[in-house]
Structures are given as C-alpha cells and as structure tokens.
From TrEMBL:
One of its GO terms (molecular function) is voltage-gated potassium channel activity. It catalyses: K(+)(in) = K(+)(out). This is Potassium voltage-gated channel subfamily KQT member 5. It is found in: Cell membrane. PANTHER family: POTASSIUM VOLTAGE-GATED CHANNEL SUBFAMILY KQT MEMBER 4 (PTHR47735), POTASSIUM VOLTAGE-GATED CHANNEL SUBFAMILY KQT MEMBER 4-LIKE ISOFORM X1 (PTHR47735:SF9). One of its GO terms (cellular component) is voltage-gated potassium channel complex. Keywords: Cell membrane, Ion channel, Ion transport, Membrane, Potassium, Potassium transport, Transmembrane, Transmembrane helix, Transport, Voltage-gated channel. Pfam families: Ion_trans (PF00520). Its main location: membrane.
C-alpha cells in the first residue's frame, strides 16, 4: 500500500524501469558512444557516408558515370533508410533525459543543430532518390550537395567536445598575442598591396588594374602560396614586393607558432593534472599513515583537538612492545617538524579529571590495556604501509 492507501502496481513499475533503462542504453549508444561496439558502429556509419561521397564523385566522370550511378542509387537507398531509423531512435531515446521529455522536450531535441542537419540531409536525399536513379541526376542536382552534410555527423563522435574545447582554450589563452600578430599582418598587407599598386598601375599591360587585384596579390604573396599569376614588372614594384614580403611573412607565420606552442603547453598541463590526480590518493594515504604513526608514540606531546591515542600504555608488556616498535623509527619520528612540548607547571595546567559519565571509557584498566595493544598493532601496520607507499612513489618518480 502507498502512503495514500492505494495499492502499488509493481508490474507497472518494473515495466517502466525496463523501458527507461532501454531508452538510456540507446541514448548513450547513439549520443555518447563509449566502448568498442559504439565506436565500431559510428565508424561503419562514417565509412558508408564516405562511400556515398566517393560514388558521387565518380558519377561525374564519363567513364564511370553509368556504373557509379546504379551503385549510388542502391547505396543511397540503404543510407537514407538507415539514417531515418537512427533518427527515429535518437528522438525516441531522448526521453530518458528530463529536459527532452514530453512534446516540448522533443521539440527542444529537434532544435539542436545536428538534428536540423539530419532532417535536412534525409529530406534532400529522399527528394533526390524520388527524381530517379540516373547518374546525371546525382551529378547535376543541386540537392545532391546537401549529402555532404552527412559527413558532419562524424564530428559528433566527440560527444563532449574535448577537441573543440582544447582548441578554444588555447586560442583564448593566447588571444592577445594572436590579435596583435593579426593586426600587424593586416596592416602590412594593406600597405604592401597599396604601394605595389601605385608602382605598377601605369605600366602597359599591367595586371594590377585596380586595388582589389593588388590585394589578391598581397594575400597570395604574404601567405607564401605564390600562384604566379600576378607579378610586378618594374624595379620599384619588385623592390617594394621583396621588402614587404620579408616583413609580412614573418608576421603571417607567427600565429601558427603561437598556436603550436599553446597546444604543446596545454597538453603538458593536462598530463601534469592527470599525474597529480593519480598521486593524490597515495599522498593522502601517506599523510594519514604518517600522522597515525606519530600519534601512536607515547612520548608525543601533540596538542591536536582530535586524538585517537589518548590512553597511555600502563602495562609493562605493552610498554616493551611500544619501545621495540619505535626503536628503529625513533629517528624518523624525531625528524617531524612538529614541536614537542615538555610538561611544565608554569605553562600548562594539570589535565582535568575525567567526567563520571566517561569512566567506562578511560578508567577501566583492562579495556585500556587491550585498546593500547590494538593501537600499537594498528600503528605498526600503518607505518609499514607508509614505507611501502613511499617506496612506490620514489620508484615512480625515478621512472618519470
């Protein structure tokens, strides 16, 4: 019975849980590919799209136009049906997310950029297939160019956008340097094109007929493309072109070096962060074991507010165990930077007597003796564990 006195339907609850679980599996498989099966599926989709684009190229060649057109028609049919079913599964499985539940949520899912691309390419492919299987139709149809957008689906293999985030972080981190170099390079382009235009505009049969063509020459020259379709003919134009090319190329090449060094530094920073995350847990365990080892010493004068080792070891047997356990590591404990405070009546007042209600904690000799032995064994175990972890960290640093 529920809180309202109504019977609960366990079968409906189980059925709904299985339904949600199935939706979640399909959504993670299509939208968040992880594992070998998901990666293989998306690679197969990429190969199918690439084959369609290759056949589209071959359909424009006269020698392969007929054969490529027939194969392309059947290939397009399979791809369109495949992507239509996949799109329906994506739309259905999006209901596992709270933001995409209901009709309004489905509309939000359809408004995503990649969903718009999917709908556009599927509709364009259906129109092209409806017009016929002729190779000329595939080659000449303007809608056929929309099939190129299918290649953008493979960009979604990086669901979390790690690649684009890395690129954006590098550009943002070096935005000042990039803006400076681009600004100086743009000024160099304008001045070089204008000076060459002034030197070459009055020459007979010149190709620098206007400033726009001079700008084209400046872009091709400063970007080190060098088509050779436009060259200065006068010695004034050649001198200006040589001087501006030497200065302009240096500024146009700087952004590539800045981005390259930024990528290298970012990758190094990510590797350092991963290394620190891997060492965080061993370091925390080492610090904890070190504190327990120090707190287990009966001569420790720590003033910490929380002390698990508050009971001295009254029996001779436990005293011998403690002296034997800390005989070898006394020098290690003495190297700790903690200040050992000696007992002094002038500085410290005597410890107050335990409260009556706490008598069963601290005044029972038998329990104190057993607890002291247990703490001693625990401290020895933690000290050995600490030495093992320290040895592993040292070997790891040497390997690095």
């Amino acid at each position: 019975m529920s809180l309202l006195g109504k019977p609960l339907s366990y079968r409906a609850t189980r059925r709904d849980a299985r339904y949600r679980r199935l939706q979640s599996k399909f959504y993670n498989f299509l939208e968040r590919p992880r594992g070998v099966k998901a990666v293989l599926y998306h690679m197969i989709v990429f190969l199918m799209v690439f084959m369609c684009l290759s056949l589209s190229v071959f359909s424009t060649i006269e020698e392969y136009e007929a054969k490529a057109g027939i194969v392309l028609f059947y290939m397009e049919t399979v791809v369109v049906v495949w992507f239509a079913i996949e799109f329906i599964l994506r739309l259905w499985s999006s209901g596992c997310r709270s933001r995409y539940q209901g009709s309004i949520g489905r509309l939000k899912f359809l408004k995503r950029p990649f969903c718009i691309i999917d709908v556009t390419t599927i509709m364009a492919s259906l129109v092209v297939l409806g017009m016929g299987s002729s190779g000329q139709v595939f080659a000449a149809s303007a809608l056929r160019g929309l099939r190129f957008f299918q290649i953008l689906r493979m960009v979604r293999m990086d669901r979390r956008g790690g690649t684009w985030k890395l690129l954006g972080s590098v550009v943002y981190a070096h935005r000042q340097e990039l803006i400076t170099t681009l600004y100086i390079g743009f000024l160099g382009l304008i001045f070089a094109s204008f000076l060459v235009y002034l030197a070459e505009k009055d020459v007979a049969d010149t190709k620098f007929k206007n400033f726009a063509e001079a700008l084209w020459w400046g872009v091709i020259t400063l970007c080190t493309v060098g088509y050779g379709d436009m060259v200065p003919q006068t010695w004034q134009g050649k001198f200006i072109a040589s001087f501006c090319a030497l200065l302009g190329i240096s500024f146009f090449a700087l952004p590539a070096g800045i981005l390259g060094s930024g990528f290298a530094l970012k990758v190094q920073q990510q590797q350092r962060q991963k290394h620190m995350i891997r060492r965080r847990q061993p370091a925390a365990t080492l610090i904890q074991a070190l504190w327990r080892c120090y707190a287990a010493d009966e001569h420790s004068m720590s003033v910490a507010t929380w002390k698990i080792h508050q009971i001295p070891l009254p029996s001779p047997q436990t005293s011998r165990v403690m002296s034997a356990s800390f005989k070898n590591n006394a020098s290690f404990v003495s190297r700790l930077p903690t200040i050992r405070r000696h007992k002094s009546t002038s500085l410290h007042s005597p410890a107050p007597a335990p409260a009556p209600h706490a008598k069963h904690r601290y005044d029972v000799n038998a329990s104190a003796e057993n607890l002291g032995e247990l703490h001693t064994a625990h401290a020895l175990l933690n000290y050995n564990k600490m030495k093992c972890i320290n040895t592993r960290l040292t070997n790891h640093d040497r390997q690095q």
